[in-house]
Design brief:
Layout (H helix, E strand, L loop, with lengths): L12 H19 L11 H14 L16 H11 L4 H27 L2 H12 L2 H8 L7 H16 L7 H19 L5 H4 L2 H12 L1 H21 L1 H9 L5 H6 L1 H7 L4 H12 L23 H16 L4 H20 L4 H4 L4 H23 L3 H28 L2 H6 L2 H11 L6 E5 L8 H8 L6 E5 L4 E4 L4 E7 L6 H4 L4 E8 L8 E8 H11 L11 E3 L3 E9 L2 E2 L4 E10 L17 E8 L5 E7 L12 E9 L6 E11 L8 E3 L2 E2 L4 E8 L3
Parallel strand pairs: 1-2, 1-4, 9-17
Antiparallel strand pairs: 3-13, 4-6, 5-6, 7-8, 7-15, 8-10, 10-13, 11-12, 11-14, 14-17, 15-16
Helix pairs in contact: 1-4, 1-5, 2-3, 2-23, 3-4, 4-5, 4-6, 4-7, 5-19, 5-20, 7-8, 8-11, 10-11, 10-17, 15-17, 16-19, 17-19, 19-20, 22-23
């Protein structure tokens, strides 16, 4: 075909039947055990769940600011399903499933419209049977929405450019308006969309070079539609401009570009080479375990070989608009990963999924036709059977690899399987009303969001801390305590009275976090013992000292009280919560609005000779009357013997401002002075 000639081909009955089989098989593979495969939630997925629930409850963000920042469209779609009664995790994954199936359908539609039916069917089937498409269609991530929206926009753009001859400008304009809406929607979906839109002006430039009559006919309305689509994203970008610094993920990805701007091209060349190898070479694929079997290439060996041949065919046919569009699509879609490399490329180059599987389809169909021209039409049924068997085999291997990936201990750890089991355990334990949860990542948006998304009951009150260095003793007289293998209680806390072992809940013995222990907790006994230990040397001014009406220092425990230069000390500070901090920000689970305890050891000149700033019991889970114990391990600098000043206090993580200290309502500064630390010669 020398030109597209505004071709519109009807879809035959056998093509409809074959497409239905492909979509039914794809639907089954994407819905099968959707709640348990993957085996839990990653922190990014849980963040989507938290934000979707907030939207269902009335929030209307233009941009999600919690965590590293992200576009909100995926969360709005999930919120719609949640509002209809779907559990959070199912709602999230259903959005991805529907997006994945829509991508398949739209891939077929565009390829059928632009090239032909057999190529469309094979490209759709190869995509449906691939590990890449299967994995992203089951991930609860906003990136899964991008291929569907972008492929839909591409189809509408193509349909407007190559509209049927009898169409009026009003009909063409209506299609371009829909194109603009989908283009704008992509920008509310995922960061790579900020370069994907360049495909459309690039294609218009191609038309200006090689197909000028078509370009003259459509360039102006198409450019207007592109600009309209970009303008739809203006509210979000104006918000980002007014709030610099909240888009942290973009800043995390631009290091190679900064190096390139400084004249160092080696970083980008290395990443680009490694990423391109990830398509076909075993061991070079995406090594980010949350998305892929580490090193598994995008394509199996046969599909990879056909992919390369298909690329060559498209280059040879580049004067034909459809093949030129495929090449431009692929180049623009992979450009983010050319900069950042193979790691996490399954998501960053996700818009390339449809066109990636178009290339091997072009190669296979072209080869079949060449064989038929030589040996006759009897080749077609034989080739069809071979290709169908190949697609089925590829799908079986992809499913095998996907299941193997799900069962890897590191995958189960990345998807917080133990925390998921904890939520299920507590759902089935009605006598647990107040629960302390030790975890390695108590700061939101991490483990608490995973637990929140998985928990079904609404009457559970939780306290979150990392028991290896902190403890919250609830103000209630009784509670439960859950301690996983990876976050055991520090010995300082483990031997406190009041903890009565109840049971150990085990997962798989090869899990990285293979069990959690459950305790019945008489909190008053623990509280009394903790306060007794914290009766250090009396302070001046005398206790209690409160911090901004939020906390009251109840005592401290210094071990050892006398040290030598370079030694390590352990300071345990014990605080009582006066008031909750939940009203301090729009999102009380935001780590940026949490507090941090500081412990500074100062030499006679006021220089810091030792420091430990941390809070491993995040303030958003505090309730008035709770007791907070924080362990500070401080390594002392090599200082001369003598007395060193010790000061403690707290500051807000967001702006580093310290909480004012008060005694009997009167300000005494922004820190609390402990008795001097005695340093002796070794």
């Amino acid at each position: 075909m020398a030109d597209n000639k505004e071709r519109v081909s009807r879809i035959s009955r056998w093509e409809w039947a074959a497409l239905a089989v492909i979509l039914l098989a794809a639907t089954f593979l994407r819905l099968y055990q959707l709640d348990t495969l993957p085996p839990g939630l990653t922190h990014d997925e849980a963040g989507h769940g938290h934000d979707a629930v907030a939207i269902a409850q009335g929030a209307r963000p233009i941009y999600q600011t919690v965590g590293y920042g992200r576009e909100p469209l995926y969360d709005y779609l999930a919120a719609g399903l949640i509002a209809l009664g779907s559990p959070t995790v199912i709602a999230l994954r259903l959005v991805s499933v529907m997006a994945g199936l829509a991508t398949l359908l739209l891939t077929f539609a565009w390829v059928h419209r632009a090239i032909d039916g057999p190529t469309a069917l094979l490209a759709t089937a190869l995509q449906a049977a691939s590990f890449w498409s299967l994995a992203v269609s089951r991930q609860a991530l906003r990136s899964s929405l991008l291929p569907a929206l972008f492929t839909g926009a591409l189809y509408l753009f193509w349909h407007a450019v190559y509209a049927p001859p009898h169409w009026t400008w009003r009909q063409r304009g209506a299609v371009l308006a829909l194109f603009a809406a989908l283009l704008g929607a992509t920008l509310y979906t995922y960061i790579p969309a900020r370069v994907l839109w360049l495909l459309f002006p690039a294609f218009l430039l191609y038309l200006a070079l090689y197909h000028r009559p078509v370009c003259r006919r459509v360039a102006v309305p198409a450019l207007i539609a592109i600009c309209a689509g970009l303008l739809l994203s203006a509210p979000m970008f104006l918000f980002l401009r007014a709030h610099p610094g909240i888009e942290q993920r973009l800043a995390m990805l631009d290091a190679p570009l900064r190096a390139f701007a400084a004249g160092d091209v080696s970083a980008i060349l290395e990443r680009a080479t490694g990423y391109l190898a990830a398509f076909v070479l075993p061991g070079w694929g995406d090594d980010f375990l949350a998305y892929n079997l580490p090193g598994r290439p995008f394509l199996n060996p046969v599909t990879g070989g056909l992919f390369v041949i298909g690329l060559v065919i498209c280059l040879a046919r580049a004067r034909h608009p459809a093949y030129a569009m495929a090449l431009l699509w692929f180049a623009v879609a992979i450009s983010p990963s050319l900069v950042t490399g193979a790691t996490a490329s399954m998501t960053r180059s996700i818009a390339a999924i449809p066109v990636t599987f178009l290339f091997p389809a072009i190669a296979a169909v072209t080869g079949t036709r060449q064989a038929a021209s030589r040996w006759g039409n009897r080749v077609h049924p034989i080739a069809g059977g071979v290709l169908a068997a190949f697609v089925i085999t590829s799908g079986a291997l992809a499913v095998r690899d996907y299941l193997a990936w799900n069962h890897l201990p590191p995958t189960r750890a990345a998807y917080m399987h133990t925390l998921t089991q904890t939520a299920q355990y507590l759902d089935a334990t009605p006598d647990a009303r107040t629960v302390g949860l030790s975890t390695a990542l108590p700061l939101a948006p991490h483990d608490p969001y995973v637990f929140e998304a998985r928990l079904r009951r609404s009457d559970l009150v939780t306290r979150w801390f990392d028991g290896r260095s902190a403890l919250i003793v609830p103000s209630t007289s009784a509670a439960h305590l859950v301690v996983p293998a990876l976050a055991p209680l520090d010995p300082y806390f483990a031997d406190l009275p009041g903890l009565m072992f109840r049971e150990r809940v085990s997962m798989r013995p090869d899990d990285l976090n293979p069990f959690f222990d459950v305790y019945a907790w008489e909190t008053r006994a623990t509280r009394d013992a903790l306060l007794h230990r914290a009766q250090g040397t009396p302070l001046e001014p005398a206790l209690p000292v409160d911090l901004d009406g939020i906390l009251r220092l109840r005592g401290y425990d210094l071990r050892p009280p006398t040290v030598t230069p370079g030694a390590q000390i352990m300071l345990v500070t014990v605080w009582e919560v006066i008031a909750s901090t939940r009203g301090d920000s729009q999102d009380p689970l935001s780590a940026e609005h949490d507090l941090v305890f500081f412990t500074h050891i100062l030499d006679p000149a006021g220089n810091v000779a030792g420091q430990a700033d941390r809070l491993d019991a995040p303030a958003w889970s505090w309730q008035p009357g709770d007791l907070i114990a924080q362990i500070h391990q401080v390594t002392l600098a090599d200082v001369p013997p003598g007395s060193l000043e010790m000061v403690i206090g707290a500051y807000r993580r967001a702006d580093m401002t310290r909480l004012p200290a008060r005694v009997n309502g009167e300000s005494v500064g922004d820190l609390i002075r402990l008795p001097p630390l005695d340093v002796r010669a070794p």
